[in-house]
Specification:
- The complex is a heterodimer of chains A (227) and B (289).
- Helix content of chain A is 31%, strand content 24%.
- Chain A contains seven helices and ten strands.
- Chain A has a six-stranded mixed beta sheet with strand order 6-7-8-3-9-10, sandwiched between helices. A four-stranded antiparallel beta sheet of chain A has the order 2-1-4-5, with helices on one face.
- In chain A, helix 3 packs across helix 4 (115-125), helix 4 (115-125) crosses helix 5 and helix 5 packs parallel to helix 6 (171-186).
- The two termini of chain A are 21 Å apart.
- In chain A, 40% of the residues are buried.
- Chain B is α+β, with helices and mostly antiparallel strands and 289 residues long.
- Chain B is 71% helix and 8% strand.
- In chain B, helix 1 packs across helix 9 and helix 7 (154-196) crosses helix 10 (260-286).
- The longest helix of chain B is centred in the middle third of the chain and has 43 residues, at 154-196.
- The two termini of chain B are 24 Å apart.
- The mean pLDDT of chain B is 80.
- Classes of the chains: A alpha/beta (227), B alpha+beta (289).
């Protein structure tokens, strides 16, 4: 589903490379943690996956799209096959939970009559059917992240990218959101989750990629071998 | 499509002050342009009224044989600039003077000899009603032996030409300047709206909305603002026009307002201004979000 081959990337005003010679492969149905300290390159790696950044060198492939040579008009097609969630939820404050989820369908040109059903299904999937009419400010952090996840899932993407999704949540909410991501993964969606919550990573026993200063230094699927 | 309109109007409502401001500035720009258009329109119709009267009058010596006059009239009618040539006899000239200058009718009664000379009145074709061509025709008329004097109001024909040219140039310059100002204002408004809606645009991109979908509401918003600005400008123009016509200046000037075609033109100009202003700036500003 996702393949990085010798990928390097540097920001125009960055001191050193944001990513250097990174290679890995994520197959169907996998759940992968992306760990490392702040500035190690986790977010950059995810940005390359959803084509917010382009690699300077190497090859990035996501769901059959070659990110390096992706034409601007192809980016929306890629993004409709990905769900992305962030630490800060990124909900629209002036819309209800249901409207936030429906927004993703509306702006991708879905017919108005199919939207309510799919929104209800996505909200049910994240356990928030009761809060459909609530505005983000009326929801807890964990609930807001669930709305964001529902929005990411409503297009039925084969891949879900999560950048520190539990970074703003307390322990209980963190467990809830992580459980939800596991359920989503169990239903067949590839989940890539960047986090620096090492307790969570240790307890979960999932494949882990560790970045340090832009280099991939650990991949648990290699039996812990550094690259 | 429905959604695009809804988003456009939602944006309008959310940035109400800014939207009203931009409609008013577009309206003002179009108002000034429209006002000038109105002046130009009335100037043009007034000028064409005057231009109709651009004619060359050649006074003929008393006692010229009528045969010579008939031949000359045919020659004159064959000049390429000439639309119509009319021979006005001494008697006709006197009749006309009595009619037009009724105040002096007593003076005419006592006349024993008709002092008025016969003349050729030459009307020029519309495209030749200017100083150069009137001068050419006058020059040719002078070459006839029986022609005593030629008048064509050289000075005011020339002034008329200059005025007409100036009106055209000033109109073009002011129109362009204000169109430019409107575009800049629309650009600034869009920049502010884009910044204000940065979060929404970011999310739209994230979930896979196409660039045209993101631009759509801005373009609709721009076009609608242009239309509203155009309507407001028309109302302002109409108000100024009515004030001018009714109060101080009276109706005798015979001022015209825009015709239906010109009203449409102004509105279309407004819509195009709003639309292209949005199109130019939306792409540029979206890059920064």
């Amino acid at each position: 589903m996702i393949r990085f081959v010798k990928v390097s990337m540097q920001y125009p005003n960055g001191a050193g490379p944001a990513l250097e010679d990174v290679s890995f492969h994520i197959g169907r149905g996998e759940f992968v943690f992306l760990t490392g300290h702040s500035g190690a390159g986790k977010s950059t790696l995810l940005k390359l996956m959803y084509a917010d950044e382009r690699p300077d060198q190497g090859d990035v492939r996501v769901s059959g799209f070659a990110i390096g040579s992706l034409r601007p008009e192809e980016v929306p097609r890629l993004r409709r096959r990905l769900g992305v969630v962030f630490q800060d939820f990124r909900l629209l404050e002036d819309r209800t939970a249901a409207e936030n989820v429906g927004f993703a369908l509306e702006v991708t040109g879905h017919r108005a009559d199919v939207i309510p059903t799919r929104v209800a299904r996505a909200l049910a999937q994240v356990g928030l059917s009761q809060k459909a009419a609530s505005f983000p400010r009326e929801l807890s952090g964990g609930e807001q992240q669930r709305v964001a996840i529902a929005r990411a899932l409503v297009n039925d993407p084969p891949v879900l990218l999560a950048d520190e999704p539990t970074g703003n949540l307390d322990e209980r909410a963190t467990r809830g959101v992580f459980q939800l991501l596991e359920d989503i993964n169990a239903a067949g969606t590839v989940v890539v989750m960047a986090t620096h919550d090492l307790d969570l990573v240790r307890a979960a026993k999932k494949r882990t990629l560790e970045l340090r200063d832009g280099k991939l230094v650990f991949d648990s699927s290699d039996g812990g071998a550094a690259r | 499509m429905n959604l695009l309109w809804r988003e456009a109007f939602l944006a309008f409502r959310r940035t109400r002050t800014l939207s009203v401001l931009s409609v008013v500035t577009i309206a003002f720009a179009l108002f000034v342009t429209g006002l000038f258009g109105l002046v130009a329109l009335n100037l043009r119709s007034a000028l064409s009224g005057i231009a109709e009267r651009v004619e060359v009058v050649a006074f003929v010596l008393h006692g010229t044989p009528s045969q010579a006059l008939t031949v000359a009239a045919q020659d004159i009618a064959a000049f390429p600039e000439v639309q119509e040539v009319k021979y006005v006899s001494e008697e006709e000239a006197l009749e006309r003077a009595k009619r037009d200058l009724a105040e002096f009718s007593d003076a005419y009664k006592d006349l024993e000899v008709n002092p008025l000379p016969p003349s050729f009145e030459i009307r020029l074709k519309p495209e030749f009603r200017d100083a150069t061509h009137a001068g050419l025709v006058a020059e040719r008329m002078r070459s006839f032996d029986f022609v005593e004097d030629v008048r064509y109001g050289k000075d005011w024909v020339q002034r008329l030409d200059a005025l007409r040219n100036l009106a055209g140039l000033v109109g073009l310059a002011i129109g362009l300047a204000f169109a430019l100002v409107s575009m800049v204002i629309i650009g600034v408004t869009i920049r502010m709206t884009v910044l204000q809606r940065a979060r929404e645009i970011h999310i739209m991109r994230l979930v896979g909305a196409t660039d045209w979908f993101i631009r759509g509401p801005f373009l609709i918003e721009g076009a609608v603002k242009g239309l509203l600005g155009g309507l407001l400008a028309l109302i302002l123009c109409a108000v100024v026009f009515l004030i001018f016509r009714s109060e101080q200046f009276g109706t005798s000037l015979g001022l015209h307002f825009f015709g239906v075609g010109q009203v449409f033109l102004l509105l279309i100009f407004g819509v195009l201004l709003g639309f292209t202003g949005s199109l130019v700036s939306v792409g540029r500003h979206l890059k920064h979000v």
